[in-house]
């Protein structure tokens, strides 16, 4: 019976992989050939691959080469062979969490020609790492309204989140904090790693307190300048100390292995870590911060070359995606861009061009269920009237910037067939960071906050809106004239405090409409 089950599931996986040909993207120039891989799936401890098309081979065989993310076939390991056929199939042991693991490999069909292996197909990664992950880790889905919490020692209880009715929050993990130190061991793919107990314990406490209040946590993973060198892309080496965050390293073997181990560790740790009667859980992982703004927020000195830069980022994203989903099948994994929809400048790709290129990179090498974290700030940042269009914020695809006012431009863009998820769904958007200053008036800030929450609640493709922030930031934002907190730095509540607390009530919406001088309901574009 066990043998029958394995054969049956193997056949089923092959059938699913074959149907993927219907949606197989055009073969990229890197992997042009006469054979097309239609799917790479995990099934019963194996990697199952199907291909179509023919190519001559000196030995009459197709060779399935498994390459590291930073390699191109024929460099790699010959993991399976199949007789030359118009419809070939391969199976190789996955070897999950062993030195021989294929979870992060890129698969290419090669033939022997003139005594050497030659690629004849596109290259594709595993597209269902969630087949390994637990489906028993229930998501916390209590509402869309979120807030970047004040996590200072005076507010570590985060009691205000419960009082304010916030149901989502973000936590940023700078890789230096968890990796510069020892005390928390983790073995992954046969190698031992050690994470910083002091900082891990602090995150345990923070995430546990948020989770205990029914708050869904999204973790942002970034590489800061103090992170160990193996986390940082070699393309970033010339800019250390000059930028905020740096590209994650999927370029070297050590970097790729360590990044995958760190992502797996975080997914494991926060699949329900218990402490002091609390359970610390992370439902969502955001890989990088505003990565289209490459010079400041994801520095790599290949950034000017959109194709090269995006492929480097996509490689790191896929490593994290596979590591996370193979632990927690219910986790969502997001890329992250800013509001510069059609605006580009030195060090900045328009978010539209980056998103298009990123989707192409992922789709051409195996479509996965990536999501989008978006920062729907106004333009300029000091404009605190989120409900009002400007010449640069319009409801059409030619708009320079996207704010909450015209967020439907983004979700309509993602509704195109080419951007749909593997199941045909529109990818959800998490508005993971946007804030409105009270510097030009507390009432305008309050109206903007209420309107932003209304917009999120009226767009089915938005899965959360996290406002920045609970308390004014005196270090970065206030020197720029931005006072985005619901509280000032002395902990005095602004008008926006109570308005945020009751943002979804008809009375508050009516009050905000009166302040704005227009019925805010008439400005919505439901989706």
TrEMBL record:
UniProt keyword terms in alphabetical order: Signal
Pfam families referenced in this protein's UniProt entry, alphabetically: DUF5722
Domain DUF5722: 139-516
Signal found in the keyword field: yes
SUPFAM superfamilies membership: (Trans)glycosidases
Keyword Transport in annotation: no
Matching InterPro entries: DUF5722, GH
Signal sequence coordinates: 1-31
Name under which the protein is recorded: DUF5722 domain-containing protein
């Amino acid at each position: 019976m066990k043998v029958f089950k394995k054969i049956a599931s193997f056949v089923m996986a092959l059938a699913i992989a074959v149907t993927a040909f219907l949606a197989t993207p055009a073969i990229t120039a890197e992997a042009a050939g006469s054979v097309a891989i239609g799917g790479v799936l995990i099934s019963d401890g194996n990697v199952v691959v199907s291909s179509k098309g023919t190519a001559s081979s000196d030995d009459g065989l197709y060779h399935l080469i498994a390459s590291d993310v930073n390699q191109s076939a024929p460099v790699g390991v010959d993991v399976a062979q199949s007789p030359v056929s118009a419809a070939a199939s391969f199976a190789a042991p996955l070897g999950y969490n062993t030195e021989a693991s294929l979870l992060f490999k890129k698969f290419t069909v090669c033939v022997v020609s003139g005594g050497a292996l030659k690629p004849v197909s596109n290259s594709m990664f595993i597209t269902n790492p969630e087949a390994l992950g637990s489906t028993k880790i229930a998501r916390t889905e209590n509402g869309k309204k979120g807030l970047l919490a004040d996590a200072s020692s005076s507010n570590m209880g985060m009691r205000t989140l419960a009082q304010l009715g916030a149901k989502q929050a973000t936590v940023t993990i700078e890789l230096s904090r968890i990796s510069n130190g020892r005390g928390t061991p983790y073995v992954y793919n046969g190698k031992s790693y050690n994470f910083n107990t002091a900082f891990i314990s602090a995150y345990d406490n923070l995430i546990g307190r948020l989770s205990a209040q029914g708050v869904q946590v999204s973790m942002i993973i970034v590489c800061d300048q103090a992170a160990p060198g193996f986390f940082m892309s070699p393309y970033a080496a010339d800019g250390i100390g000059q930028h905020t965050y740096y590209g994650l390293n999927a370029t070297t073997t050590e970097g790729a292995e360590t990044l995958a181990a760190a992502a797996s560790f975080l997914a494991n740790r926060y699949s329900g870590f218990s402490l002091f009667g609390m359970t610390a859980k992370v439902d969502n992982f955001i890989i990088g911060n505003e990565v289209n703004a490459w010079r400041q927020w994801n520095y790599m000195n290949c950034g000017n070359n959109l194709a090269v830069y995006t492929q480097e980022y996509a490689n790191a994203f896929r490593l994290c995606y596979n590591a996370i989903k193979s632990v927690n099948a219910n986790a969502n994994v997001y890329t992250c861009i800013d509001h510069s929809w059609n605006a580009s400048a030195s060090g900045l790709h328009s978010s539209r061009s980056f998103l298009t290129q990123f989707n192409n990179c992922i789709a051409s090498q195996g479509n996965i269920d990536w999501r989008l974290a978006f920062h729907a700030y106004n333009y300029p940042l000091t404009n605190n009237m989120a409900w009002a269009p400007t010449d640069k914020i319009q409801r059409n695809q030619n708009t320079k910037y996207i704010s909450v006012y015209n967020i439907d431009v983004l979700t309509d863009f993602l509704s195109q067939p080419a951007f749909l998820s593997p199941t045909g769904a529109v990818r959800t958007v998490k508005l993971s960071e946007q804030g409105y200053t009270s510097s030009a008036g507390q009432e305008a800030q309050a109206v903007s906050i209420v309107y932003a929450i209304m917009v999120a609640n009226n767009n089915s493709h938005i899965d959360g809106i996290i406002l920045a922030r609970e308390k004014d930031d005196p270090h970065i934002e206030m020197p720029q004239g931005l006072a985005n907190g619901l509280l000032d730095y002395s902990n005095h509540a602004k008008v926006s405090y109570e308005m945020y607390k009751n943002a979804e009530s008809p009375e508050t919406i009516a009050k905000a409409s009166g302040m704005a001088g227009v019925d805010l309901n008439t400005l919505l574009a439901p989706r």
